[in-house]
Amino acid sequence: MEHTPPIQKGHDARLVVAIILVTMAMGMLDAISLLHLKMFAGYMTASIILIAVNIATSQAIVLSGLEAIACFYSGAVLGGRLVRRRRHQRLIIGDMLLGVASLIALAAWIWSAAPPGAPYITLGLLAFAMGVQTSATRHASLPDMTLPAATVVLHGLAHNSSVAGGDNRGSWRRAAAIGALFLGAVMGTLISAHSVAQGIALTAFIIMMAGTVLLVGRLPLVVRLDRISIP
């Protein structure tokens, strides 16, 4: 009689690792964009608040915020179409992340080349890429890991803890996401202090790694990931 392997009830380990990498990259990118572009590229809640604060305090940093929101919206529209393709979930998210990495790499090159309007072009590309990326991470359907994740993840960590009467399920995954976001922000701050272009380029590389984890077939590391499920 043929043996049927047990059904794994956890989450796809490749997806979890990829989203944690993307979370780190987003922490880097938002730290860089806030420090050097004066606006968030991916965290639209904060961008809306910054616009309101700038209007209320009569500061001039409003157009960049509106640009970020418009470009993020456009990227999310494209992302919404891309996730509706009839392909395996990993393949859809993986090739979307590679596309996002390409856009971010282009933004790094534009910043380095410094053409007229480079800050606005860079912010627009990054926000558009983050719109696509958010569609990809939503399509992964991992609880509490739709980016930007910190508020929801922190709530889930507390809400499902044994102190709150929960079973601690998913605690390490949530803690890893928060740690990755924090580490990414620290890295983005330190690296961009020396070179903004290099910081953005490193973000592109990390997202490319996340996409590769989902797309490659028989590498030893991903084969091991395929054998486990993550709660």
TrEMBL record:
Tagged with keyword Nucleus: no
Pfam families per the UniProt record, alphabetical: DUF1275
Keyword line: Membrane, Transmembrane, Transmembrane helix
TM segment ranges: 15-36, 48-79, 91-111, 117-136, 175-194, 200-221
Protein name, as recorded: DUF1275 domain-containing protein
Native source species: Acetobacter suratthaniensis
